[in-house]
Amino acid sequence: MKRMLTGFLSAALVLSGFPLPAYAQEPLEVINVMSSPAQNAGRLSVVLQMGYREAAETLAKRNLALTLTGDNNESCRLELSKIGSEQKFSFGGKEAKVKLTLHNPQNVPLAGNDKVGFYLLEFFDLPRNLKYRVSFEGDGYSSFTSQELSINEYVPKLCVSAESGGFALGDVTGDQKIDQTDFSKISAALGKSSGDADLNFDGKVDITDIALVHHNMGAKRPAEVYEGAMVTAGILDTDAIAQELSKSGVQLEGSLEDLFEDNGQAVKLVNTKGGPLQIPITFETPKVMGQIEIVSPSINGAPEKGNAQIEYEDGTTEQITFDNTSPAGAHAIERSPGDSTVVIKLNKRVPVKKITITIEKVIGENGKVSYTVIEKIEFLRDIIPDNIDLGASIPKNVYAEPGAKQASLTWRAVDNVDGYIVKYGLSANALNKQLRVGTNEAVITGLENLKTYYFTVSAYSGEWTGDPSATVTCVPQPNKAPLPPDNLSLTPEDSAIVVNWKNAEDAEFYNVYYKASSESEFKLAKEKQAGTSFRVSGLTNDVSYDFYVTAGNKIGFSKPSLTATGKPEKETLKIPELPTLNRIPNSAIIRAELENKNNVSSEYDGKFDIKWVYDGDFETHWTARAWWESSRITFEFDEEKSMDYLIYVPRLNKGFPESLQRYSIAAWDKDGNMTWLTADEGKLGNRPEGNVGSAPIVRNNPKETGYAILPFKRNDHIKKISVLVRQGDGTPQPSSLAEIAFYTYDDIDDSIRSLFTDNTYTAVASGATQAKIDELRARLESGDGYYVNKEILLDELSLAESLLKGDKSGIGAVMDQVQSRDSSRDPKKINTFQPLGVTAEAGKQIVVYAQIPEGETVNLLPTQHFAEAARWSGSAIKLENGRNIITIPRLNDVSPQKGGSLYLQYSGSKASEIKMQVRGGNKIPVLELSDWHEIGESEVKARISAYVSELESYYTSKLSGMNNNTLQTHILNATEIAFPHVLLSLPASQVRAGLGSNGVNALYNDGLAWEELMKLMYRTHGIDEADLEKSASRHNIRYMRMFGNAFMYASGSHIGIGYGSCSGMIGGRPTTVTGANNANGLFGWGIQHEIGHVMDTLGKAEITNNIYSLFAQTYDGRNNALNSRLENSNKYEAIFQKVTSGQKGMANDVFVSLGMYWQLHLAYDGPDDNFYNELNKIGGGDANFMAAASQVSGKDLSEFFRSWGLEPSGQGGGAEERKIQYLTDESRRERIAGTSRQSGSVGISASYNAATKKATVSVTPASGAKMLGYEISRTLNGKTEPVAFLSAKSGKTTWDDSLGSVNNKAVTYSVKAVDILGYVIAEDSAPELKVEHNNLIEKGKYTTSLADGLLTVDFGSSPQSIAGIVFNEFPAAGQTAAVSGESSSSDITETSSSPSENTSSDPTQSTDESSSSASENASSASSQSESEVSGSSTENTSSAPASGMDEPSNSQANAPVKDSGPGFPVITEEETPVKAAESGTVKVVVTDAAGKKTTVLEISYEEIRKDPAKLRFFTRKEADGSICPFDAKTIEVSGLPAGISAEKIDFAAYPGDNIEFGINGIGILGRSYGEIASGKLIVTGSFRGNPVFNTIRVYGKSQNVDYTGEEQKDTETDKIPLEGEIYLFAAMPKEGDMAEIDNGLWIFVPKQQSDTTGSVQEDGSAACAGSILPTQIMAELHRKDVPEGGNGRITSDTRWIPSPTYESMPTIILED
């Protein structure tokens, strides 16, 4: 298409018989995408504590209800059992909502068959102008009504219970009160089965019912009302807050008001200067408070650690730290899922003047805090934009403001685009993520704190994408102080202790505190330590000290860590006392030799002597130079010796004793015959590939004792012996030897062993006699120096003596059912612990007597009770066949009581041959049902019965005297319950509490429930039941110390739960008990969620692990279609929004993202199918997920994945006909029930509102059909894509489309009706709309003052680009207006929060206004000097009517006027009436930031009165009418007539390019004009833009009629470009370049000029009969960044218009 730029102004088009065309100039308006808080939205919090705890299903029978009543007498009754998790209701003419959460009596979310302890109700969006009362009622309950509650200043928190408010169970008579009448009635019914009197529904009236009435009789204290979150409107000094934020370099993405409104709008605060990220909160007057809460979404950027500096009314200050950091690798659930809450308690109720919150760490960042995300706050950045460059499409002045795990970006808007693409990544060369937005700001979430991110911004319009901006960087910063550091450990040194701890997320530094344990006050040892270790010196050796650490960052400090205790020790060589009995003197050693003589440390400086290792001096030694060189030493004796052990003393300096691990020994007789005395038979080498497993482990805990005992096979002919001791992998020091000691064989140990039948020492041998026992005891007591502690040997003799007498009570804990758990072939390896049934205190010694077959490896695993997530299990201790003396290691320095349960690990094939006895420690109750499926029900219940009895006895004897705090920490409060696929390691007290009165049946059902849940979990993982039975590993659910706000967590080999959740683990019920279509008893969402973390294969933490939770939640053993959490929490509406948003990647809301995975189950699973079972079997991990999903479904799921923002890969199979991205749980239920595809019709209409820049789409729904809803699509720039989905469940039939930057373009909306199964059953399209609006500046961005006809506009510190003015209303000549005597002599400031627009949403009306507007432009332009431009005329022309105002009917002076016309005040007797001047000139002067003044407009009253609502563009005189935007700091509008209102005057930025067809502007040129010959068909119209950079393309489409079938069918061809030449007509300026113009005209001369009736068009279709053009045409205006740079981007287009027939075309004459 040829384009020509004509350098003169085209005057007019001569249209035969038709008026001159007029062209619309609608202003462009900028949408602020940040939502403003609803000032009328109030909150109310209600907590109902149940005095009598019952299951939720029981409470549902009591018809509990809450009634909310306003002081306007309006009320709303809500039944608690029917609310679900969220319910909307109408109140005060507004939509409000209530959220309900159920907690158990321990105040953690309900799990298993927990009873309800609390109903937590949160009301939102209540009218604030009302006061409220809350009432409760229920069958059998006394009623309750609260006092009047105001929600204006605080969010009230009403707490109701039996004691507080008197809402209690006990109303027998039904009069809603509990008194003597109820007591008399229930007493009379005692022993009967009276329905009314049976309060607890147990079928009889007994003492329980009487007690309930008696206890709840009488007056109760009033319900407690707490003043919760402040309603902050009007109480904050927002100016001071904004100034402080700006000064400190903290920038906001969002509004300052949203930061303190509970409206769900998250705000990002970005730290641009790299200093502390601080949030100052200043109050207008001090406000009383007692607690501060910071609520954030649980995403990257949520505050984790920091401090709050509190300034009180009296001037005193206090710093309070907070820390919510989770341990690495642990996934925690908070009590409010999806939220991260920081609680800062002031510990008093006190007036506060100012709060400064310092954020030191946020989720996803380490190091400095670059940003934070807080759900209560949004900040507006104070950035002065540069001048707008109308000719450029590259976004300028891009600013990235760091927040917590996010970055907030803003940039100068680009004109004539649809939106922007933000690309970002961790490298400027790897911007691999993107976000698409509609306005010039974006919040990028999900980033990692303290990492540098790179960003670019590109504008887009349709398929065109502009060049990226300059790259900017941003380092997200934490927004809260860290959580306390964990994993404290102490390393003692001489007069010092080294404190070590785990790095706390978002911590920049640490403070270390210490004190002597005997002292009361801690002292600061080190402030702002950078690393995670610090040496505290100047201590006294052997004195106990306590230590704790706080983590800090710019926000503040964490709470203290747990306290660790230790003693400094001088590093003196503690010479061990070696056994003396039967020791071979060193003099018997005649020679010693290193196998590798060079393997000697360089520290000896070549002076090493091998004799040092047997010289009796412990301070001389040998140390290896390299771990990979041989450390074998051979010793030769003077004669053969009989030996079975030796003692090996390593170098005694720190780190050497604990480095010894395994050994290997060989011997030679005097004839040189060699024999291996250890099982490795010489295969143990110094290299890692050596046969480590068969070599024995050194005994006697050399770290504690100073020496190792190396037993070996007895040999009576040892002339030479070689010893190799290997250091452990990762140990601190290499192999060493300070002294070696050899011992002649003594038979006392073997003699004692011979008293017993085997190595378990549990039965005496047949040859054992009292005499022999007495003889051995005498030998022991007569001497010392045995390598085995004499007390142990004496204990063994006492045990033999008791057994000889038939007394078995002295036997310790016996393990004779060792299980082999070889997980090497398990598809999912988790935990292979087997409980030993013993808990032992750290530092104490136990002895394990083990019967272990040769070559088998059995390990003992020590653990810490109530431990931290990362320090709960010790290293494996290999058990040897025979006696194992073990000192229980201390696993941490912080637990109140050190020690815990012991476990076994064995994976061999000889489990039945392994037995052992444990002496020492404490036996705990163990229920062993790992073989549940191999034994009958009677055996299972018999074991359970025995266990329940043992548990009760154990509790009575060991635990009953402990208080609650002691029970939570004591190592004796432990029990183990081993089911086939789960091991429960729980407090014995909580298990006992969870069993209730029928413990055997409860625990039996609990086991069935766990097995049912595990089968479901494993099946989802891809492991079927047959394979599951072969699995050796299982889940271990343990009572553990919680961190932060967690009450459960998952961490690899175990799931940790808090004390309050433990009893719920015993309350499970299988679906055979709960029944079909009833909520199951499979332990609740929390534990299922954590199991999901362990099982998940897809790797989207907090998302894909919840697939397991959903399968468990919806499972009933039948159709498995119970309500899901997505359904109960109404997440499907947010899901529909996501899949129609067009945004790439996963949603920030984890439950919305979960919807994608769940919909595949909803689409393809039958009653007992499991989509993820099949997907995981074929390896559908995250990288292969989409391909695997296609394979499992047999469908091409491209549309589905694209709707979710993913680019599909690996798709195959047939196309999926359904729109499964809209499926809900109900869809699957209907499909399973056999519901067929529905039928019906649908309609759609659309309108546009320029004032709001929104299109309103209305749908006429299908009637009588089961529907999911209606997919609304938008066609813009020729591209059609879904933009909304109106669910049938919501009942909504209208939708507002915020069109953002879109302007001057045609938009079409269409709808597809989607039935309940996902099929599209009907479609419809609305007529095309033209989106046109002015780009009005929000009145809130400037202030005005009007006096004596001068309007002064001040933009403050943020100059705005202004391109024009709109008067909206202008007094007619002589019109009377009221002027106050005072206002005429003083400034009047007028502001407005919303812009004024005069654009109709009616497309037809809009066209008329467009015509009028353009006509006036042409008229105005042609009135210039004729020497500069040519005029033009039309045949039979008629002028467009002027739009002046009518004269008022009453205009007499001093007389009251009822109405002086639109927008003008009514005259009263106190006001002076003034008539508007007949004529005058309004002058507009702009002052820029540098103070330069420019006159941009001078216009007469007469011209304004023709059309006051017209946008008058600013210009410079030399520009000849070109549009000239100015960066304005102030504007002065002078010469205004009396009576005009500043509120009616608007200012506009450049509204963007525009193109229109002329009215009847398609015709035949009457006479030649330039190179355009007469008789040519031409198409004419107007445009706004810059003809240097603009070009126009004209398109057509034809309608075809198919007569071949029985019925006539109409079809349309695709949009095709029309060939021809384009002429652009515009004024050439006297000086400078061509600029934007508003009055340009364009002409298109089609290449096809002959009558083509009956001929074929280029696209193969027939032209319209009697027409040269296709049936319909449209035009696009394109803009380039360089004059000849191709097509550029689409900046405006027209609607499709019908082509006139050749006969009806007008004659057009062009004249100079």
Architecture overview:
The protein is α+β, with helices and mostly antiparallel strands and 1712 residues long. 14% of the residues lie in helices and 34% in strands. The chain contains 26 helices and 94 strands. The protein has a seven-stranded mixed sheet with strand order 18-58-59-57-56-55-54. Strands 36, 37, 39, 40, 41, 42 and 44 form a seven-stranded antiparallel sheet that branches. The protein has a six-stranded mixed sheet with strand order 1-89-90-84-83-94. The two termini are 26 Å apart. Mean pLDDT is 83; it is low at 1-39, 377-391, 686-691, 1378-1471 and 1652-1665.
Summarize this structure briefly.
With 1712 residues, the protein is α+β, with helices and mostly antiparallel strands. It is 14% helix and 34% strand.
Present the secondary structure layout.
Elements: E1 2-6, E2 41-54, H1 56-60, E3 65-70, E4 75-79, E5 86-91, E6 94-103, E7 116-127, E8 131-137, E9 144-145, E10 149-150, E11 154-160, H2 180-188, H3 207-216, E12 224-230, H4 238-247, E13 250-253, E14 267-271, E15 277-297, E16 303-312, E17 317-323, E18 331-332, E19 339-362, E20 371-374, E21 396-403, E22 406-412, E23 419-425, E24 433-437, E25 441-445, E26 453-461, E27 464-465, E28 472-474, E29 489-493, E30 496-500, E31 509-516, E32 523-529, E33 533-537, E34 545-552, E35 564-566, E36 583-584, E37 589-594, E38 622-623, E39 633-649, E40 660-668, E41 674-676, H5 702-705, E42 708-727, E43 736-737, E44 739-743, H6 748-753, H7 770-781, H8 790-804, E45 813-815, E46 834-841, E47 845-851, E48 858-862, E49 877-879, E50 882-887, E51 899-906, E52 915-919, E53 922-923, E54 926-928, H9 937-959, H10 964-967, E55 975-979, E56 982-986, H11 988-995, H12 999-1021, H13 1025-1028, E57 1035-1039, E58 1048-1051, E59 1054-1057, H14 1059-1062, H15 1071-1074, H16 1084-1095, H17 1106-1113, H18 1125-1128, H19 1131-1139, H20 1150-1164, H21 1171-1177, ...
Parallel strand pairs: 1-89, 2-11, 54-55, 56-57, 57-59, 60-61, 83-94
Antiparallel strand pairs: 2-7, 3-4, 3-8, 5-6, 6-7, 8-9, 8-10, 11-12, 13-14, 14-20, 15-19, 16-17, 16-19, 18-58, 21-22, 22-25, 23-24, 23-26, 26-27, 26-28, 29-30, 30-33, 31-32, 31-34, 34-35, 36-44, 37-39, 38-43, 39-42, 39-44, 40-41, 40-42, 45-52, 46-51, 46-53, 47-50, 47-52, 48-49, 48-51, 55-56, ...
Helix pairs in contact: 2-3, 7-8, 9-12, 12-17, 12-21, 16-17, 19-20, 21-22
